Automatic annotation (TrEMBL):
SUPFAM superfamilies with a match to the protein in the record: Homeodomain-like, Tetracyclin repressor-like, C-terminal domain
Protein name per Swiss-Prot or TrEMBL: HTH tetR-type domain-containing protein
Keyword DNA-binding: yes
PANTHER family: HTH-TYPE TRANSCRIPTIONAL REGULATOR RUTR (PTHR30055), TRANSCRIPTIONAL REGULATORY PROTEIN (PTHR30055:SF235)
Pfam families for this protein: TetR_C_30, TetR_N
Annotated ranges, domain HTH tetR-type: 6-66
Organism of origin: Arenimonas malthae CC-JY-1
PROSITE patterns: HTH_TETR_1 (PS01081), HTH_TETR_2 (PS50977)
GO molecular function: DNA-binding transcription factor activity; transcription cis-regulatory region binding
DNA-binding region per UniProt: 29-48
Key words, A-Z: DNA-binding
């Protein structure tokens, strides 16, 4: 792929990500995307083929890397601290929260991710399940090994609750705001530590 094609594709993805964050998937038109990216509709059709594929690629651009980092940290935790629930949860929680610190659109993608949970989009949910469901299954398996007495149904419910709390924390909807004088990185690390403790307690609950 030439540099020009790469730049055009990245511009389209960046524009789409910002617009999806602001207006949602249904509320964003391809015309808005082309206007924001300063390209014509033919460029969108060439690189993505359809709006549905554009939505999918906005997620793939971030989710592929995040999933790889999660699984790499999980493998490291299992090798260095086998059966350590907090280490498993750190691998699950820290990479997504780190996205909030990404100056190149990370905060916009966090809002897009929240939209994916809030809006009923069956095709998008299927895409995410088909491409990234294996990541959740790997973590469920690791947590199951760390908590062998936890029933599988309870494990999946509690992992879902943890994922929901993580999405909420990423979107910064909550009561806790970053205090003045505290860096974004330190605030993010504190949020991760608090969520790890909270999720571990919930998973261990009788």
């Amino acid at each position: 792929m030439t540099t020009t094609h790469f730049n055009t594709k990245e511009r389209i993805l960046g524009a789409a990500e910002e617009l999806f964050a602001q207006h949602g998937f249904a509320g964003t038109s391809l015309r808005q995307v082309t206007s924001r990216a300063d390209v014509n509709i033919a460029a969108v059709n060439y690189h993505f083929g359809s709006k549905e594929n554009l939505v999918n690629e906005v997620f793939r651009r971030r989710m592929d890397d995040m999933s790889e980092r999660r699984l790499a940290l999980l493998r490291k935790a299992q090798a260095e601290k086998p059966g350590d629930l907090e280490a498993i949860l750190a691998a699950f929680i820290e990479p997504p929260l780190a996205l909030t610190l990404d100056r190149h659109g990370g905060s916009a993608f966090v809002r897009v991710l929240a939209r994916a949970f809030a809006e009923k989009n069956d095709r998008l949910r299927k895409f995410l399940s088909d491409n990234y469901g294996h990541v959740l299954r790997e973590f469920a398996k690791a947590i199951g090994q760390a908590l062998p007495d936890l029933a599988k149904e309870d494990l999946y419910w509690r992992l879902d609750f943890t994922a929901g709390a993580l999405t909420y924390a990423m979107a910064d909807f909550g009561l806790i705001k970053r205090p003045s004088g505290v860096s974004e990185k330190a605030h993010c690390e504190k949020a991760a530590q608090g969520l790890i403790r909270f999720a571990a307690a919930g998973l261990r609950a009788g």
